[in-house]
Structures
1.
Amino acid sequence: MSACLFCRIIAHEIPASIVYEDDEVVAFNDINPQAPTHLLLVPRKHIPTLSDAEPGDAELLGTLLRRAAAIAKERGIEASGFRTVFNTNRDAGQTVFHIHLHLLGGRSLAWPPG
Ligand code: 5GP
Ligand code: ZN
């Protein structure tokens, strides 16, 4: 059994509100949402941080981003706007070391982030 929280969610060993999955990507609601839409999109492949992504992962990263845009469109937040974020390591506040793309939207989001 994996020690990684998100690998365990991907394997359905830990419950999560999964909103999309295919053979490469799983998307689920963040347990502590910061906006009306706050999803996490993860690759099934365990990659700890964006810095660990290899050249062969480039298409997978693009797939995550394109899937986030597709979900935003489905939810009707494409025109109003949304944010996609990878937090990497301490200063960005990364707490789970399985790469995840935050998709936030449904309200006005401040910039710059804190
Ligand atoms: P990070 O700070 O690493 O960029 O984001 C980790 C995110 O995972 C946080 O927004 C946090 O709320 C979310 N999270 C942590 N544990 C769980 C969990 O068990 N289930 C779900 N659905 N989200 C989680
Ligand atoms: Zn993992």
2.
Amino acid sequence: MKVIQNYINGRFVKGAREFADINPADGSVIAQVTEADRAMVDEAVAAARQALEGEWGRLTVPARAAVLNKIACGIDARFDEFLQAEVADTGKPVSLASKIDVPRGAANFRAFADIIKTAGGESFRTETPDGVTALNYTVRKPLGVVGIITPWNLPLLLLTWKVAPALACGNCVVAKPSEETPATATLLAEVVESSGVPAGVFNVVHGFGPDSAGEFLTTHPEVDAITFTGESRTGAAIMRSVAPSVKPVSFELGGKNAAIVFADCDFDDTMKGLSDSVFLNTGQVCLCAERVYVERSIFDRFLSALKREAENLRLGWPMHASTTMGPLISRDHREKVLSYYQLAKEEGATTVTGGGTPEFGDGRDNGYYVQPTILTGLPESSRCVKEEIFGPVCHVAPFDTEEEAIAKSNDTKYGLAASVWTSNLKRGHRVAGKLRAGITWVNCWFLRDLRTPFGGVGLSGIGREGGMHSLNFYSELSNICVKL
Ligand code: NAD
Ligand code: 6OH
């Protein structure tokens, strides 16, 4: 049986305990993962701190950027290994992982290599009333040791989204990937090592959250900052852990994203985009729409078309090229999603399609598949309309006026993403400007430029990453004031 190891201070090491890495398509064990105990997390943090003082700390920005580009090429060179590992761990269709997860993993390193090379600073010439003149200018210094905690839905993509800017800014990193999807983090460690990154600069510790590597990392006094992507509740727990030492945090958390469809939309394009926004990655993208508001005059037509899209999804083995929807990540997560399918019925929903589990008559029946599901008829106050489900499911409701659609979309404690579908671009701009979300797409979804700010409002997070916003989080910006 394959063993997935930790990577600490430039060595691949086993922990005292092991846990199973499960393939969600059929419940089989892919590998054993060795869990880092507290002493191993301590060792990783100490190695990272020491590496700050070594060769890494002395590298120039162009040299660091060259290392990032080398890591990107290293991912490209082992593309198939990354692809197979990611598909096996997550169950996502190979067509999706080969288009988004793995290329985006490499792209994150290339993007931040470019961004750090071209980033300028601020400067101000100061003139006081009593005739003193001074020059102020900013310099970026590394934060130090950055703890990175990532989820299972886009494991490589969301890890590299944080590792790349952290390294670009000269930090050292201890990363704790999700216990559900450990494989590509250890593969990344192999690529980082072969790219000439000194020992201790990048470390991977495997394990769980509470009482395990996640908590050991977030409570560690020698970690200078924590960046986390995951559930809002976990973010709250991590906030409590870091509070005593007042560390900077960057949180990308959950969502209950709305889509607003106007009658004047390009119907076919909207249907394609909207269907992706609900079902892509089995609905397990933080940006997925779970609330769809449709102008009443096209409501029935829209619902029938979305039902057709859902029923045309091909639930298959993840490695088959024709598969368009894989399983959910785990047995527990399937129970959670199915409990919402049940709750929807109790709350009075009409289940337009789905609502249960598919039957295959083969090994996939031991996996964690659920039917893509469309609900309608729920009051806005119901739990299925308010709580993040994180599965291939949405609730569709009609609206009569633009104001009503905006008010309903904004009636949430979350605020990560939204989308607006209309051929009237004036309205598109207007509505987008009124939605309370970190990102609003008009006539598209999940079209992301790595230079743009990314993050959420309310329960969806704290701070922004992306482009210069990432540099601002992963570095200490210091002002130098020189009297002239
Ligand atoms: P999760 O919060 O359960 O776990 C995320 C990570 O945190 C894992 O590595 C886990 O081991 C670790 N963890 C759990 N408890 C911890 C603790 N007490 N201390 C330290 N670490 C701890 O999230 P998940 O189930 O892996 O991912 C799904 C969630 O992530 C959804 O809510 C989704 O919306 C959110 N998400 C948000 C974004 C975003 O950018 N806003 C992106 C992807 C996923
Ligand atoms: C959240 O689940 C996904 C975020 C992905 C990105 O922001 C991206 O641009 O790759």
